[in-house]
Amino acid sequence: MQKSIDYGNLMHRAMRGLIEEVLRGVERDGLPGDHHFFITFDTRHPDARLADWLRDRYPEEMTVVMQHWFEDLRVDRAGFSVTLNFGDAPEPLYIPFDAIRTFVDPSVEFGLRFETQEISAEEDEAEDAETGEDEDDTAPRHDAEVVSLDQWRK
Description:
alpha+beta, five-stranded antiparallel beta sheet, three-stranded antiparallel beta sheet, 8 strands, 26% helix
């Protein structure tokens, strides 16, 4: 029996579902009105796909903007692919939802930030021993919070 409710992971899944739903709407209908997104993601995520020159330039994280020019947006359960313009050169990307660190729509002052808590194998085993759980999940744990939008205000 579970000793506590893991609100952090539940919130992470719910917010990931929100981003998926928003992007599915954009995939289907395009961006409405003044909406646009700043999406920061972990370029080291094993399922992130981007050109080598982009990975070299952004070895840890990268922020992309979906606003005026983007194409081939395709959303699946694990993430989304999109082609964006980098210096007049179109580049395809695949961004897993689990790689997203921030998702911001400044047009409506909405933002999400996903905090990653890396837990070492020893800490994880000690936690499992305390809770009596035996998880084989080696993925980092995530907590989620609402982002302050001050840095994106005009």
